[in-house]
């Protein structure tokens, strides 16, 4: 009968040999993580110190995928570092997504679990943590924390540091009821007026704004594009020689860690690359921007800073909030324009067309998150229900 092999990472008995005065060697055999059995030894001035050095060597030996081997006694912090290194090794994430994952892990999850070992990160600790995060912050924060926690512990399970991923056993979080809300035409006009009037007029110190914010708003309203996509439009992406004019959405603005803001040569998803025919008010803005960059190369951005570098989405959002707060308009973000476009297109052409212009792979996403529900019942019902009208009595007609 074949003798069972010792488990990966374990070592046998330690043998000690006296090599001379104050010289002791500790030796053992260990089965490495490639399945091979190897001899490991260490020497020191005493038996106890030699054993200590041998165990240090054993602890530092094997690696897994370029990272220190994870075990049930590894700290959660060690798992996070291994997980982030694994993300970089795969290289399948957009830089913005990679940065978001790390930020969510370090800000939302690490404070709760950094002092635990992997064997201590159990469903009994995960579920209360997620519930508390949803109650004290928001459902969105809890969902983002669950995502990165699931990814990291999934890696630990694949490394066999834990028997299974406990996040998969957590009770599904119930999303609070909500629905998309679009802007009315009056609200859109108020936003336009606020942007046009901001820091202009007699008595306002400093140079007036360069007008890019107003133009960006018109492009968002005429394309449904995300703010990062609008800021990534290049001179070569626009064609105003055809009717209607078109703009190709084929990039977005990202912030790689340790590098300056840059244009990414593809949008958020593969279905987000799309050629959009734009209304006349957006075409007029695009013509204005083409005049500004007339002497620039084809790949120059339409919207840019004083130094001709990409505008950041955070700065545009901050400027929009500042402009609107001065006239008492709150709760409007660049995404509000996207929901407004989705709702307007849906009313006229249906959810499928709205999904197409927004760059969604499914109209279900558009209907669930972007289109404001229409609760108006078809007026035909009034005509149908006329059949239930009270009949005239004979004596009433005499």
TrEMBL record:
A Pfam family of this chain: Phage_integrase
Q: Which GO terms describe its molecular function?
A: DNA binding
Q: Which UniProt keywords apply?
A: DNA recombination, DNA-binding
Q: Which residues form the Tyr recombinase domain?
A: 178-386
Please give the coiled-coil regions recorded for this protein: none
Which GO biological-process labels does this protein carry?
DNA integration; DNA recombination
Report the InterPro entries cross-referenced here. Answer: CB, DNA_brk_join_enz, Integrase-like_cat_sf, Integrase_catalytic, Integrase_recombinase_N, Tyrosine_recombinase_XerCD
- Start and end residues of each Core-binding (CB) domain: 74-157
**Origin superkingdom:** Bacteria
Concerning PANTHER family, the annotation shows:
PHAGE INTEGRASE-RELATED, PROPHAGE INTEGRASE INTD-RELATED
Q: Which protein family is it in?
A: Belongs to the 'phage' integrase family.
Q: What is this protein called?
A: Tyrosine-type recombinase/integrase
Q: Which organism is it from?
A: Nocardioides agariphilus
Upper lineage: Bacteria, Bacillati, Actinomycetota, Actinomycetes, Propionibacteriales
């Amino acid at each position: 009968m074949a003798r069972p092999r010792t488990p990966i990472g374990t070592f046998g008995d330690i043998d000690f040999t006296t090599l001379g005065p104050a010289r002791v060697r500790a030796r053992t055999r260990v089965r490495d993580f490639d399945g091979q059995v190897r001899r490991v030894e260490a020497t020191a001035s005493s038996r106890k110190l030699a054993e200590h050095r041998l165990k240090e060597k054993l602890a530092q030996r094997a690696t897994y995928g370029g990272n220190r081997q994870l075990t049930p006694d590894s700290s959660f912090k060690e798992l996070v570092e291994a997980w982030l290194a694994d993300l970089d090794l795969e290289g399948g994430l957009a830089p913005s997504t990679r940065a978001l994952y790390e930020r969510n892990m370090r800000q939302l999850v690490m404070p709760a679990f950094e002092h635990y070992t992997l064997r201590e990160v159990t469903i009994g600790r995960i579920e209360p943590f997620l519930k508390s995060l949803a109650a004290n912050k928001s459902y969105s924060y809890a969902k983002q924390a669950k995502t990165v926690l699931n990814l990291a512990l999934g890696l630990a399970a694949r490394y066999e540091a834990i028997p299974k991923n406990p996040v998969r056993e957590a009770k599904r979080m119930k999303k609070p009821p909500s629905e998309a809300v679009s802007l009315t035409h009056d609200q859109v006009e108020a936003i336009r007026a606020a942007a046009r009037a901001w820091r202009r007029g007699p008595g306002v110190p400093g140079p007036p704004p360069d007008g890019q914010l107003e133009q960006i708003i018109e492009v968002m309203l005429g394309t449904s594009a995300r703010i990062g996509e609008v800021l990534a439009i290049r001179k070569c992406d626009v064609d105003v020689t055809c009717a209607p004019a078109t703009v190709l959405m084929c990039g977005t603005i990202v912030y790689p860690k340790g590098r300056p803001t840059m244009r990414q040569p593809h949008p958020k998803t593969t279905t987000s690359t799309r050629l959009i025919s734009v209304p006349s008010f957006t075409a007029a803005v695009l013509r204005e921007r083409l005049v500004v960059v007339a002497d620039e190369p084809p790949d120059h951005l339409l919207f840019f800073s004083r130094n001709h570098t990409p505008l950041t989405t955070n700065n545009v959002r901050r400027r929009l909030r500042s402009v609107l707060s001065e006239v008492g308009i709150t709760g409007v973000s660049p995404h509000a324009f996207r929901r407004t476009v989705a709702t307007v297109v849906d009313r006229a052409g249906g959810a499928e067309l709205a999904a197409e212009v927004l760059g969604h792979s499914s109209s279900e996403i558009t209907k669930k998150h972007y289109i404001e529900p229409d609760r108006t019942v078809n007026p035909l019902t009034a005509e149908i229900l006329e059949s239930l009208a009270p009949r005239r009595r004979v004596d009433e007609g005499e």
